[in-house]
Fold:
Amino acid sequence: MGGALRWPRVTVWRVVFAALMGATLYATIVRFGGGLGKATNLSDRFPWGIWVGFDVMCGVGLAAGGFTIAAMVHIFNVEKYKPILRPTILTAFLGYLLVIFGLMFDLGRPYRIWHPLVMWNPHSVMFEVAWCVMLYTSVLAMEFAPTVFEKLGWQGALRWTRAISVPVVIAGVILSTLHQSSLGSLYLIFPYKLYPLWYTPLLPFFFYVSAICVGFAMTIFESWHSSRAFGRRLEAPLLMSVGRVLAVLLLVYLTMRFLDLNYRGALPLLALPRTETYLFALEIGLMAVPMVMLFRKRVRQSTGALYACAVMVIFGFVANRLNVSVTGMEAGSGVHYVPKWMEVAVTLGLIAVGFALFRVAAQFLPVFPEEKPAAPGAGGDPLAAAGR
Amino acid sequence: MSRAMLFDGSLCVGCRQCEAACSERWGLKYDEAIAAEEKLSERKLTAVVTAGESYLRRLCMHCSYPGCASVCPVKALEKTPLGPVTYDESRCIGCRYCMVACPYQVPVYEWSRRLPRVRKCDMCYERQKEGRPSACAEICPAGATICGERDELIAEARRRLAESPEQYHAHIYGVEELGGTSVLFIAPRPIEYLGGNPGLPEEPLPELTWRVLSLIPNIVTVVAVSMGGVWWITHRREEVAEAERREREGK
Structure:
């Protein structure tokens, strides 16, 4: 994902995409034909690999923009964020669908994915996450529906979705708050296993705040790519303000992280020459550098620098989730886990499918607002405009 | 009352008949190669391991507050009132959270099967229901593993420690650990290897997540009320502005 990413036009990317799909298909056959043992490097001592650590942990987090931007527009009435609402909702919707799809690979009995609906265990964090993800995916479907209805010209359905939009958005915020933090709570039950740089009773809180951070970063990221892919104008002033919010959130997040380390007496661990230390430094660096940069107005004004910051935050977030779910668990589990190539292929394949679906949806559905000479935020309601 | 097992490391001679009996009960193949593996796997659900000059057993500890049962999203694992922690494979979705959450790394998975199950010792639940000892306890020629009521086994362990203190490290593993377990250990040396996680907390692990989960109703209420409140304010502001505009135009 470098600066040269212009994949819709350059055929090289299509070749890469096709190769990736081939590898994913092969891995899929091995996974379902021969079992998890054939396709993965998972073991009794290390039962969760990157299909949990990346596909679920990162997938759900990277889709967090869906509830933050929706709340900004519908609840806080910040009209200027409206132009990025639909692409963000689309990203989130696709993200959650891919998380569920990815779970089919990881679950030993994927055809029983519906079991938590009828077999309850309220004491299980996983049970709560399952319900929230399911309900929130439905919420996202309802939030995305107007885009489809508009294309189809279903005025009645459009009016109906608008009427319920506020309660739906509020439900989305509640559900997201619950399960974004609960992905961190999943790890609370093994204090003896997760490395102390990451294990803290505050894990749910940190997962929540970092998810909000990466949600904003993803908004910048996809606006940038969409503007390049579709030759659109970037909503520059808007993204500048997103960058500013992001900087403040990152400051809060990083400050809390270090206060927590200090409070738990874990700071001396940073002096140990261990893999955990280096990967922790990487994770923090990828969050701290963009934070410092984003506090400078000049950086926020440059779309390139803004994009670079967003990418760093995204990678920092991914590093954090992988640190918690893989790096931080290795020492406590007594094994070293390196994913098999088929695990990586499936994960990359899911990402590629996500990009492709986004592009197709953006091409055929009114995801982006019509180009207008007027300044963004001047009150053009795409819904009302299309209704006429 | 609650059924339990007591393993006495000073009596175990390492004959591995418990392994063979266990495998027979589960319908697993058992041969010399498997006997030589000193770890739990889908091939054997209990293992005799060499601990210095004596032996110890690995098997499900049947915690009083089992982490595995607490994390299972579909209640496939359950702490029965009788004592054993049982597994219902017809509910299991295969998320493997139980395996990650077990502090003793006991549950194992059938990695090579297309429709895998979690496997673990269930203390021979059907036997325990009838008040009979588990297969491993029944066959043990040295009396190193015995079954009984938990209270009685703790009393028995205390008696052995008191009678021949020179033979034992003065601690009954499983009385306090993680809020207690239904499998108790006494041995010549301190027991710390079980699953490779020294320093387990005394408090039951499920408490750690329940503390957060029990906050859910509050979180839902607070978020709903605050979001609704913010919406009402921002919406009201718009309405007022609209009304004022009309008033001005009306004049």
Summary: The radius of gyration of chain B is 26 Å. Chain B touches chain A through 59 residues (CB under 8 Å). Chain B has a mean pLDDT of 92.
